[in-house]
Fold this protein.
Amino acid sequence: MKRIIGMCIGLCLFLYLGFCSAANLTLLGAGATFPYPLYDKWFHVYEKISKIKINYQPIGSGGGIRQLINRVVDFGGTDAFMSNDELKKAPAEILHFPTCLGAVVITYNLPGRPELRFTSKLIADIFLGKIKKWNDKRIKEINPDVSLPDMNIVVVHRSDGSGTTFIFSDYLSKTSYEWKERVGAGKSLKWPTGIGGKGNAGVAGLIRQIPGSIGYVELIYAEQNRMPVALIKNKSGHFIKPTLKSVSMAANIDIPSDTRVSITNTDAGYGYPISSFTWIIFYKEQAYGGRSKKRAEALAKLFWWMIHEGQKYNERFSYGRLPGVAVKRAEAIIKKMTYNGKPVLR
């Protein structure tokens, strides 16, 4: 009897310690500011459900990639999928899966908060420093009903490595030969003009402070700060306002199995042209650096929740839900996670 009681006490202690271990587990992530408002909500909700804490630092996509490559974090967040060269530099295989859809918007600080229209050429010329005044005839031509002030244009851009910058510059590189040749696409750029702000919040803050300024931020940051957003002429010739509907329409394309795909300058007739997926990146093999299997399992379960139950929060924060085909691709990728070569999720 004493032996049975002892075994029961031991089992209870084992279960209690296991629960405490799970409850005290903190997963570490870092990267994109683009989806941070949604991620902040997701991780707060998930901690209440699972007792697993998630510490995510919005340091920019470039920082998230570096932190993952250096194995400082469990996962990274990036708005620009890693290139083949970047993947080759990693110490082991890295996988991507999308979490939501978002839009990069053009916002500005002008008297009366007018709703402006822009073409890709107009945007490129402003950010190249070729158009310097708000009442320039090229802006007035496509905004004939707006009284544009005689004010200097102050360009505001990101100062840090940024997926938001990649999305914006990827769009301009597809639509402006001069931009492609002079500046190109990337997370960090050599800007021809303007001042820099750190993160989407930093850019939004500078635009709010500086009359005559213009910049690019993720849609939610413009909405949270009640900033005007421009309609942009898409490939089909329509001036499109960034909305959940127009962003979702932009993703109506084929998605490759590795999910690394750009949807800027979409072919969709009524899709918003500066739309993008944002991705979570992680190591396929999780048995490294003394990591426990429990940690790998917690990570896989979090990812699975994000692409399923977590999607109900997307629209509340102005992000598009993943289309069905993207969910299927993400499921297949998460199932590839291994621990000592064996699948983490069964």
Notes: Residues 2-23 form the longest helix (22 residues). The chain has two domains: 25-102+276-343, 103-253+262-273. The first strand starts at residue 26 and ends at 31. The radius of gyration is 23 Å.
